[in-house]
C-alpha cells in the first residue's frame, strides 16, 4: 500500500528542520541557565533536586510518546493507512530514549535522596516495563522480514502495552512507593514553588522541541526506508 | 564558580545526570541525521539507476 503524502509536505518538514534545531538548542540553553543558576536549591534535598529538571520532562515525554505510539497503532488497525505505521515507527525510538533517560536520571537522583540506586517499587518497575515495551516494539518490526506481519504484531504489542501507562501514572497513588506522588496536577495547584516551576516549564518545552525535531527527522528516514523496501520488492 | 561546580556536595550526581542526558540526546540526534543523509544518498542513487 502506498503512503499518500505530498512532496510539498516533505519539503515543508525539510525546511522547518533548521528552525526546529535552533529553537531546541535555544530552549535548552535558557532551560540550563534557569535550572543550574537561577533555581534555588531545595530546602531538604539541596542541589540534587536540580536533576528533576531533566528527569521529570523525560518521564512525561516517555509516557506521552507511548500514548501517541499506541494511538497511531490503533488508527493503523482501523484504517490500514500506512502513514500511521510510519508515525509510530518514527516516534518509538525517541520515546525509548526519553524512557531510558528517565530511568537513569531517576536512579542517579535516588541515590542521594533514598540511599539506593534502585528499588523494585511500582513506579520504577512499571517504567522499566515501558522501556522493554519500546525495545520489543522496535526489534519486533526489525526482526520480522514480512513487513505486513511485522506491522500487525508490533502494533498489537504496542496497543496491549498501553495498559502500562495508567499503571505508571497511578502507581504512586495505588501502592506504597518510595517514589513521591505527582507534584503538578491539573486538578490542584502545584506543590512546588514558582522559582522551580519556571525552569521545569522551560526544560519541558526544550524536550518537546527535541521530540518534534528528531521525530520529523525519523519520519523522513522511515519514509525513505519504506520506499527502498518497495523498490527492492 | 566553585559553588556551582560543587552543587552543595551533590556534584557527582547532578553533573553526571546532566552529562548523560545531553550526551545521549546529542548522540541520538546525530545518529538519526547521519542515517537520514546516508539513506537519502543511497535512495537518490538507486532512483537515478532506475530512471
Describe the structure.
Chain A has 233 residues and is mostly helical. Chain A has a domain at 58-181 and 193-228. Chain A has seven helices and no strands. In chain A, helix 2 (52-79) runs parallel beside helix 7. Chain A is globular. The mean pLDDT of chain A is 90. Chain B is mainly alpha-helical and 51 residues long. Chain B has a domain at 16-50. In chain B, 88% of the residues lie in helices and 0% in strands. The longest helix of chain B has 40 residues, at 11-50. The chains are: A mainly alpha (233), B mainly alpha (51). At the A-B interface, helix 1, helix 2, helix 3 and helix 7 of A face helix 2 of B.
Give the SSE map.
The complex is a heterodimer of chains A (233) and B (51).
Chain A: H1 7-38, H2 52-79, H3 82-114, H4 122-143, H5 147-161, H6 164-174, H7 194-232
Chain B: H1 2-6, H2 11-50
From the structure provided, what is the oligomeric state, counting identical versus distinct chains? heterodimer
Distance between the termini of chain A: 13 Å
Overall pLDDT score of chain A? 90
Radius of gyration of chain B: 21 Å
Helix and strand sequence of chain A: HHHHHHH
- Poorly predicted runs of chain B: none
Terminal residue distance of chain B: 62 Å
Instruction: Give the proportion of residues in helices of chain B.
Output: over 70%
H-E order of chain B: HH
Q: What is the helical fraction of chain A, as a range of percent? A: over 70%
The number of E-state strands of chain A comes to 0
- How many H/I helical runs of chain B? 2
Global shape of chain A: globular
The number of helical segments of chain A is: 7
Strand content of chain B: under 5%
Rg of chain A, nearest Å = 19 Å
